[in-house]
Amino acid sequence: MKAAPAAQKRLLDLAELDSALDRLAHRRRTLPELARIDDLSTRLARVATQVIAAETEAGDLAREQTKAEGDVDSVRVRAERDQKRLDSGQVSSPKDLASLQSEIASLGRRQSDLEEVVLEIMERREAADAQVARLTAERDELAAERGTVEDARDTAFAEIDKERAEVQAKRGTVAGDIPADLLALYEKLREQFGVGAAMLHGGRCLGCRTSLSIAEINRIKATAHDEVVRCEECRRILVRTPESGL
According to the lineage, what is the superkingdom (predicted)? Predict the structure, then answer.
């Protein structure tokens, strides 16, 4: 392949711009905000699950408390009804009177036991509600922090994308100065090796950092200036300049 030396040198400008684009892409992929968002999202998902579990437990305890309080009310109503019968003097039979007094005493003990159950449930519910409040606050705090980090990420993305657009515009201008066949070769090599062209500097390929043999240097010296030469080691296009040491 042949190309004017000036066109070949433009490959170095193109390679520099491509390296800049690669660096920008790497910056975009490795922003510290991305790792932070992933960490916060993981923690947020875990806490959100804990909130649901805590709310479920608190709801179950609320229903359990309501039922227990209903049981207390039921026993209290029965005890009050029996006490009224006893106080009214309607029960005259000693046997029935003893039975009624025994039932009232039994209901009193039952009510006391049920009230203890209600108190125990209330304590558990209070702890569950506190857990819900704590976890909800933690969830909201994590969500707010993630939102802040996402804003920082978006700002960084915008800056990188702006710079990338500017570099892309410059690349388009440089690529327009390069013959189509040479540009196609460069693009193919760049896809394979990451860098499609490198300067021959002081007898060394700056693409693979390999020093050329004397025989190879002599071969390149004998090659016409418009001939496109390749590094024998890495197969990239070697661009000759006054610093090539030829």
Answer: Bacteria
- Cα(242)–Cα(14) distance, rounded to whole angstroms? 19
Angle of helix 5-29 relative to helix 94-175, nearest 10 degrees, comes to 170
**Contact by Cβ (8 Å): 14, 178:** yes
In this structure, whether the domain defined by 31-170 belongs to CATH 1.10.287.1700 is answered with yes
Amino acid sitting at position 111: Q
Residue 148 tokens read as 């802040």
DSSP 89: T
Measured from the Cβ of residue 47, the count of other Cβ atoms closer than 10 Å reads 21
pLDDT in tens, 94-141: 887 888 889 889 999 999 999 999 999 999 999 999 999 999 999 999
Domain residue ranges in the chain:
5-25+179-244, 31-170
pTM comes to 0.75
